[in-house]
TrEMBL record:
It comes from the Bacteria. Keywords: Membrane, Transmembrane, Transmembrane helix. This is Multidrug resistance efflux transporter family protein. The keyword Transmembrane applies. It comes from Ectobacillus ponti. The chain crosses the membrane at residues 31-50, 70-90, 96-116, 132-152, 158-177, 198-218, 230-249, 261-283, 289-308. InterPro entries: EmrE. The keyword Iron-sulfur does not apply.
Amino acid sequence: MKPILIGICSALFFASTFVLNASMELSGGSWIWSASLRYIFMVPFLLCIVMMRKGLRPLFHEMKKQPGTWLLWSFVGFGLFYAPLCFASAYSPGWLIAGTWQITIISGALLAPLFVETIQTKKGPVQIRGRIALRGLMMSLIILLGIVLMQVEHAKRLPLESLLLGVLPVLVASFAYPLGNRKMMEACGGRLDAYQRVLGMTLASLPFWLLLSIYGFFTVGLPSGGQSLQSLLVALCSGIIATVLFFTATDMVRGNMQRLAAVEATQSMEVLFALMGELLFLSIPMPSLLSWCGMLVVTLGMILHSLVSNRKPAKKLEQSVNIG
């Protein structure tokens, strides 16, 4: 249950991304700077944290062993995750992006066959190819049903172009984030903690963010002071606190794809937190009764997903492993 609670806390801080990105877009800021400044601002904070924990040398040792792996999966996990989210904020409101982002619950479950998980049997640990957990997937569909209920009447008011440009990039991000995170967990093999891994992925993704910044300088000019400040807040709340909390939770269930999917399902709470943030700080209209029903369904689905995914593997699974 502890990884689930940590996952919910991370969702609270992740939600600040959608609220602050919506605020920056409303004030005329470019998505390019919203994306790149977050990760550039993260570097000094993470360096200080890892230095105080005396973890820089082991991190650099790991990065030197697999530089290509770090560059590739950091670009996928951070670059193809956050740049599309910020791009989508230019075409859709924050609540719709937060709602669409919940597709990552299913995306994470569908990625299971790409990885090998460790199953404890009477004969000791056995590695088998991950399988899609159908019970957890059904609970994920309940969560997505709640998302649809919350967003359906708002989506009808949007032009098709805005809907596509606001949805398709988020779909890309929903696969990129869990894929990059899991691939780096697999590459590190438990030798690095969450702080080291976040710093390593941030450093490895810097070439992409610097190139994006150069593009932004020549196309939209420098960011305003207000956008820089809000990007700094995103870096602290979402980039540092939320990411470390989430990576800590996923590390706690590393090797168990069902429980990993349950931790990722806690991110559905971002919709509720983002809605509360927009109500408080951006003065959006109060949701309808249908939207509130959707929130209830999301919460129920998350609880059911957690209960189903945290059950101990059935004896049938152990038998199938022994037969193999």
